[in-house]
Amino acid sequence: MAKSTESSSVVAEAKRQAQAQTRAQSRRRAVGWSVTGIVLVALFVALVAYIVRQGDVSEVSGEGQLDLAVASDNGGIPIGSTGVVGEELDSTRVRLDVYFDFMCPACRGFEQTHSEIVSELRAQGIVDVYYHPLGYLDGYSLGTEFSTRAASAAALVAAESPDDYLAFMEAMFVNQPAENTQGLTDAQIQAIASQVGIADDVVARIPDHEYTSWVRTATERASKDGLPFTPTLAINGDMQNPRDNPDDLNWTVEGALEQAIRDAVGGE
To answer: Is residue 65 in some structural domain?
Structure first.
């Protein structure tokens, strides 16, 4: 009897351990499937969010591209004494080229601190200003190519609403997005354009990105011409790089830009 009882106990214990092992395996499988389910759901949510974000920004394609006829050979949008693109330019004046990117914080700083004096000197017939909107910082907008889209919109305004170019550029800097964000959507750029008085039929064309190729060509040209960073200024064709050349114009020094322009009057 003792041996029979002992044998039964061994069998019962083995059965209990087998059942415990089976339950543990089931729990592990359940946890594994739960984790897998969470990961799959997260991936699905991320995919949906990406698709939604992409829906906010039209594809920057090469279809229906236009050349900006009013621009200079090196991709500058010219503003003379009247403040209207392409009007009242004079080759005997000082030429100031401003290379910038709508996502560049320093470019916004330049615009905010120097737009008034530049406008005064331009209105006085001392300087003509050539603005170069670039797609220089596309890599800082999480794949939306904000810099190129914004520059394309600026080119469209220059071509179709030249009276409003300066106001549009200023408003874009006021609403500048931070680097390493998606930037502004096309709809937000359209809203800015509408707020500065640009006609509805022009605003409607902003998501078409008609000047993308022009922006890319102008950006490549600027790099080939020696653009070191944004913003960069050129006076009478000479790019200023105070980081490498201490004698070059440093626009962050108070009064330096105005003095450089006045010193260049009558120069080559």
So the answer is: no
